[in-house]
């Protein structure tokens, strides 16, 4: 389902770190006080969607599983900020959900796995034959055991208003210089060039990720994850400096650290801003709210068109303490099915981390393009990394604070990059 990374990208340490209680728990391996397969109900916890209609449609879709299986699914939701606070506590208490959706990366689901809060479902992969892309499956694999189903595939790039570009005589940017020139033309016309908000902090992580990935490629970013290259390197300083420069030149909304994500998207939907750097999860809202045709491209690089930043959203995991593991796995089999994948594409505008047949799918022209672009991810094309799902909470905090400090002029790009490196060494 479309669980915006705008909510996934800001997880706090209490959810992610064993240090919240100082201990781990031992999985129950699905031991139940009821006969295997006889559980009549399970609880599924997901982040509260921004669109109430999407939740209603999802529940109606899940009802098909309930009818076929005889298993009742109690779908519960929490706002992200609440979920990140209470999820680990619920899982440790044994009173948590049987199945829950959470980020697929090592800093999200991976941390809960290390804390012993997630059930090993390796046998279920063999039993049901789930056809998950290998690169995605790796994100939920720890020490050779598989613990979840990866969430939807996503890209981060640059949406632009085609009508505005045509009116102003702007060609699709093929380099960073092209983007600067386009933004200057837009600003001269009286519009906001780039609808950027960084009030909530996580947005800055995406801004840094897309600029850095396009500049040095996936391997360059991975070298920083591995500690082979410093976060205080000139490339990171340059990526921070790029957004400082854009802000100083009036290419962003006034005081972007006071602009939240919803306000930035509204600027784009309303036609007041010509471009918005964000993720493919926004396609559905663009289709519903914008009265103009949009293009979608990678964030440009200094010497060329750049690459999309790619990643995975939240996906389902099974609690290590559930007493209804068999029923939970039957539900995961439903969520991993191609039929469910096709349904999510058409109804929730998300892209499953598995092969699906696209013939006959009813999607917009923009989403069809995103599907094609994302397919390249699974075929081995170069995609950058969304930094915040791959690093520690301490590095994320340094990154979020650093971008906000750069935007407000309270911190230099050099200081922001140095703070990330210092956090990485802790």
Question: Overview of this structure, please?
Answer:
Helices cover 46% and strands 13% of the residues. The chain has 18 helices and twelve strands. The longest helix is centred in the middle third of the chain and has 24 residues, at 202-225. The strands form three sheets. Strands 6, 7, 8, 9, 10 and 12 form a six-stranded mixed sheet that branches. A four-stranded mixed sheet has the order 2-1-3-11. The chain is of the alpha/beta class. The two termini are 35 Å apart. Residues 1-37 have low confidence and may be disordered. It is globular and about 65 Å long. Helix 10 crosses helix 17 (393-408), helix 11 (234-248) packs parallel to helix 17 and helix 11 packs across helix 18 (413-424). The protein has two domains: 5-152 and 313-357, D-Maltodextrin-Binding Protein, domain 2; 154-311 and 382-424, D-Maltodextrin-Binding Protein, domain 2, CATH 3.40.190.10.
The CATH architecture classification of the largest domain is: 3-Layer(aba) Sandwich
Note the overall shape. globular
How many domains, as an integer? 2
Mean pLDDT: 88
Which bin fits the share of residues in helices? 40-55%
Low-confidence stretches: 1-37
* Count of discrete alpha- or pi-helical segments spanning 4 or more residues: 18
Structural class: alpha/beta
Number of strands: 12
CATH superfamily of the largest domain: Periplasmic binding protein-like II
CATH third-tier fold name of the largest domain: D-Maltodextrin-Binding Protein, domain 2
**Separation of the first and last Cα atoms:** 35 Å
């Amino acid at each position: 389902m479309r669980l915006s990374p705008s909510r996934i990208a800001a997880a706090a340490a209490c959810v992610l770190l064993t240090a919240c209680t100082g201990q781990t728990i031992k999985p129950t391996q699905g031991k139940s006080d009821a006969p295997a397969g006889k559980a009549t109900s399970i609880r599924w916890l997901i982040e509260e969607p921004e669109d109430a209609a999407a939740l209603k449609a999802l529940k109606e879709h899940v009802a098909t599983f309930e009818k076929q299986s005889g298993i009742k699914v109690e779908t519960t939701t929490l706002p992200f900020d609440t979920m990140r606070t209470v999820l680990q506590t619920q899982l440790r208490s044994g009173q948590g959900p049987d199945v829950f959706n959470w980020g697929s990366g090592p800093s999200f689901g991976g941390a809960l796995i290390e804390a012993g809060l997630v059930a090993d479902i390796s046998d279920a992969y063999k039993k049901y034959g789930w056809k998950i892309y290998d690169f995605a499956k790796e994100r939920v694999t720890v020490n050779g055991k598989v613990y979840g189903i990866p969430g939807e595939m996503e890209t981060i790039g640059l949406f632009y208003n085609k009508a505005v570009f045509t009116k102003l005589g702007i060609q699709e940017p093929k380099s960073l210089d092209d983007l600067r020139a386009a933004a200057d033309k837009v600003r001269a016309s009286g519009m906001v060039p780039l609808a950027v908000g960084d009030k909530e902090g996580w947005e800055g992580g995406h801004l840094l990720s897309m600029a850095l990935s396009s500049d040095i490629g996936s391997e360059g970013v991975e070298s920083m994850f591995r500690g082979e290259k410093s976060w205080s390197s000139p490339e990171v300083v340059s990526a921070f400096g790029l957004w400082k420069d854009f802000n100083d030149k009036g290419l962003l909304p006034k005081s972007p650290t006071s602009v939240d994500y919803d306000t930035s998207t509204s600027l784009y939907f309303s036609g007041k801003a010509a471009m918005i750097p964000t993720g493919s999860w926004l396609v559905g809202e663009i289709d519903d709210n914008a009265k103009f045709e949009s293009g979608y491209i990678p964030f440009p690089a200094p010497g060329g068109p750049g690459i999309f930043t790619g990643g995975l959203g939240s996906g389902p995991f099974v609690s290590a303490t559930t007493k209804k593991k068999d029923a939970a796995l039957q539900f995961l089999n439903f969520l991993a099915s191609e039929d469910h994948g096709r349904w999510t594409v058409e109804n929730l505008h998300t892209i499953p981390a598995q092969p699906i047949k696209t013939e006959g799918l009813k999607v917009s022209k923009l989403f069809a393009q995103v599907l094609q672009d994302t397919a390249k991810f699974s075929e081995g094309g170069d995609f950058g990394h969304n930094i915040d799902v791959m690093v520690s909470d301490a590095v994320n905090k340094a990154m979020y604070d650093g971008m906000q400090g750069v935007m407000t002029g309270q911190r230099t790009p050099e200081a922001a990059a140095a703070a990330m490196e210092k956090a990485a060494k802790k």
